Amino acid sequence: MPPKPAPSATGQERVGDPTAWFSSLALSSPLAQAIDVLGFTQMTPIQQHALPTLLAGKDVIAQARTGSGKTVAFGLALLTFVDLRVAGVQALVLVPTRELADQVTTELRRLARFIANLRVVTLCGGVPVRTQTSSLRKAPHVVVGTPGRILDHLERGTLELRTLRVLVLDEADRMLDMGFLDAIGRVVEQTPNARQTLLFSATYPPEIRTLSRTLQREPRTVTVDDAVSHVDVDQLFFDVEPARKLDALAALLLKHQPETALVFCHTRNDVRDVTTRLQERGFSALALHGELEQRERDEVLLRFANKSCAVLVATDVAARGLDIKGLAAVVSWELPTDPDIHIHRVGRTGRAGHKGLAWTLCSQRERARLVPIERAAGVPARWSRVPDLGGTLDGGTGALTPSPPPMKTLIIEGGRQDKLRAGDLLGALTGDIGLPGDVVGKIDLAARHTYVAIRSDRADAALRGLRAGKIKGKSFRVWLLE
After folding, report:
1. pLDDT band at 201 (very low <50, low <70, confident <90, very high)
2. Domain extent for 440
C-alpha cells in the first residue's frame, strides 16, 4: 500500500502521486530544512524521475531544458554525498559559461544554507587566476566552473580532484558545441574512476551519447520532453519566404508588442543582420553571439533581463544556459534541423504561470524539417497569417510603432570592492533623490561596477541625482548603458 500523502504546511492533505513530493525523499536534515524554507513541495518531472536514482549514487544521463529544475536535482544529490570531515574537493560541476556557473553556485548555496562550514567555489574565466588561487588555499568541498579554467588550475597544481565523488556535466551539448570536449577529457583524467557521473543536456545529439559511453557506467536515462506541449505557450507557424521574414517579424512584434522577445537565428551573420535591420525600424534590439567579449555579453544580458531592451537576437549556442525570467515570446527566424532544438526554444517561454508566445517563420524550402518536429510534439503545426498592419510589411511606418523598453539601466562606477550594497543604492535613489521605490528595478553588484534598472520615465532624474549626490559619502561616476 503506498504511503498516505503528507500534509502540506497549510495543514491540507497533498493529493496526487505521493512520489512527486519532496517529503517522499530520504534527504538529510539540513537539506530537508532548506527545501522547506525555500518553499519547495512538489517536484518537477525531471526531479521526480531523476532524484531517486541520483540519491542512490547511480550515473544518470538526463535530457532537461533550462528552467526544468535540474540544478536542484543534481544539487541535492551532490550535497548528499559531501563529507565535511574530508578535506578536499568532493563535487565538481562543469558548465559552459560564467553566467550558468553563477546561477548554479547560487542555487547550491541556497540548498546548502543549513550545512555548516560547507565551501563552494566558482572558477571561470574573466576573473584573475591569482584571485581564484587564494580561494583555493583551503580546499573547497564543491567547485563549479568552466572546463578551460578548471583545467588551468589543475595544471598549475592549485586544484586537486583526488577526493572527488560526484562529477556533473551541465549543458553538456553546449560545451561540445563550444569545443570543450578535449578540456573535459583532460579534466576527467584527473578524477577517480570510482565516482558518480551525471550528464545533463537539453538535446541528445550522437556526440552526447558517445560522451556518456566514455564517462559513465550503466547510466540511467531520464528524458523529459514537456516543452512543446506546454499548455501556457501559444505556438504558431507562419509561411514566409526568406526575403519577407524581416517584414513578418516586425509585423508580429508591432501587433503583439511583447515586453521581451528572444529571436533565434542559425548563424552569427544572421544575428547581426536581423539586429541591425530591427534597430533601423525603431526596435530596441541587441545581438548575442559568440564573438562578443565577456563584458559586452554580460551587459547585453543585463539590459535584456532588466527590460531595458525589448528584443534579444541570438544564436542557439550563445543563448544556451540563460534562464530569462518572464520571457514573453520566442521567435525562430527559421526552422532548426534538430527537433530537440525547437523544443528547447519553445520551452523558454510560458513559464511560472505566464502565457507565452512562440512564432516560427518557415519558408517552403524548410518544410521538410517540420515533420520530425510535429512527430516530437504529437500534434500538427498550427499555421497562421502574418498580420497586415497597413504598410508595415512594405517597410512603411504603419499605424503602430515599437514601444520603448519600460526600463533603462544605469552603471555606477563602484561595486562590491568599494563596499557598496544594494541597500545603499536604493537608499540614495528613494531617499536623497526622492524617487518612488516602485521605479527602481533590479540592482546587480559586480566587483567594480553596479547596474541599476530604473523605469524609463524616471531614468534621467535618477542619473542627474546620482551624479550630483553621493552614495555612502562618496561620489561615483554614473552613466546610462546604451
Report:
1. confident
2. 407-480
